[in-house]
């Protein structure tokens, strides 16, 4: 039930929004037993809710699965950094 609810919210386009340079931004990252993920979120002016505008996830490879929980959490931070520094598709054509 909870999984389906989360899946519905992720698939719902109203859940995400476009980036606005004037709004505050935060980075949220996490690691699980088999992967790492990150989202970039902005706080809407009203009703003051954090909404994602970019997110990513990847599975851990065999070598990474052997790391400690702390090292995997740090890997999530590194993953998020690499995700956020990728050039935007629009930048490729300018």
CATH architecture label name:
Roll
Could you name the CATH topology?
Ubiquitin-like (UB roll)
Strand residues, percent: 25-35%
**Element-by-element helix/strand order:** HEEEH
Number of domains: 1
* The first-level CATH class name: Alpha Beta
Care to count the β-strands?
Answer: 3
Biggest sheet, in brief?
Answer: 3 strands, antiparallel
> Strands across the major sheet, in which order?
1-2-3
User: What is the share of helical residues?
Assistant: 25-40%
In brief, what are we looking at here?
This protein is α+β, with helices and mostly antiparallel strands and 94 residues long.
Q: What would you say this structure looks like, in words?
A:
By secondary structure, the chain is of the alpha+beta class. The protein has helices at residues 2-11, 69-84, and strands spanning 25-31, 35-43, 50-59. The chain has one domain (17-88): Ubiquitin-like (UB roll) (Roll). The chain is built from 2 helices and 3 strands. Strands 1-2-3 form a 3-stranded antiparallel sheet. The chain starts with a helix and ends in a 10-residue tail after the last helix.
């Amino acid at each position: 039930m909870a999984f389906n609810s989360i899946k519905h919210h992720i698939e719902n386009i109203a859940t995400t929004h476009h980036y606005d340079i004037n709004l505050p931004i935060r980075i949220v990252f996490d690691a699980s037993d088999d992967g790492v993920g990150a989202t970039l979120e902005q706080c809407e002016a009203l009703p003051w809710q954090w909404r994602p505008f970019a997110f990513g996830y990847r599975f851990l490879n065999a070598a990474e699965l052997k790391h400690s929980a702390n090292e995997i959490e740090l890997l999530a931070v590194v993953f998020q950094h690499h995700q956020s520094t990728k050039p935007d598709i629009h930048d490729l054509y300018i």
